[in-house]
Amino acid sequence: MAKKKKKKSTTGRKLKKQQKHAVKRKQKRKQLARLRDALLHPSLSKAASWPLHEVLISKTWRDPMQLTQIMVVRRGPAGWYAMGSALVDQACLGVKSAFGRVVDELGYRKHRSHMMETQELIPADINLVAKIIREAIAYARSFGIEPDPDVRETLILLGDADPDACEEEIPLGGPDGKPFFFAGPYDNVPKILKTLEKHLGPDGFTYVVPIELSDFEGDDDIEIIPVEEWDEWDEDDTGLDMD
């Protein structure tokens, strides 16, 4: 009986040792795969020196009451494309969302097609889009609103763009000359409204929120829209894939 027990124990130790080695081999393969991807997949910083492929902007960018989409694309070697996108709210929030990534041609064309489906985009000068991003960020920061941190990825791909070389005037704010906050379904409405009131006072801005988000104690003369009409304002339709 003692010998059988000892044999069973030895077999158990062997199985554990084999499992341990298997886990280590799996981890090593993952590390090698990550290293291979890092070596083969160009970085955004390297892509900033690639030739400019195209710059697109929403046709309605001169209307600050419309969200403005921006897409900057650089083409690199071996079929790589570096894309930088930004969703800009010129009326209030500055850069609401942004991203930059290096993709293959299929990924680039898929993203471009989706953006074209959701909003009409036109070719633009890179200095213009750089100026829109700069001015929108500065405007929002003047009353305490910071841009999406990922805007840094888009800025990298702007390369040596010169906003000051663009003579276009960038429209900002709402029709009354004040910041106009039109709350989106993913905005932190209470936080944004408190920030605006802190910097501008209760009468220093205009805003529209859905009824279910309207429990903010501020200006009584706010515009409230029914939730059933809120589907028209869906950030999933902006064309920016943030996954």
Structural class: alpha/beta
| Helix content class | 25-40%
Give the count of structural domains: 1
Strand content: 15-25%
**Total helix count?**
6
Question: Whole-number average pLDDT?
Answer: 82
Question: How would you sum up the major sheet?
Answer: 5 strands, antiparallel
Rg over C-alpha atoms, rounded to the nearest angstrom: 25 Å
Number of DSSP E strands: 8
Question: Runs with pLDDT <50, length 5+?
Answer: 35-39, 216-243
Strand order of the largest sheet: 4-3-2-1-5
From the N-terminal CA to the C-terminal CA, the straight-line distance is 60 Å
- N to C succession of SSEs: HHEEEEHEHHEHEE
Cα shape: extended
Concise summary:
This protein is of the alpha/beta class and 243 residues long. Helix content is 38%, strand content 21%. The chain has six helices and eight strands, in the order ααββββαβααβαββ.
Topology:
Blueprint: H1 2-40, H2 44-47, E1 52-58, E2 68-75, E3 80-89, E4 94-104, H3 105-118, E5 121-123, H4 126-141, H5 151-157, E6 180-182, H6 189-200, E7 206-210, E8 223-225
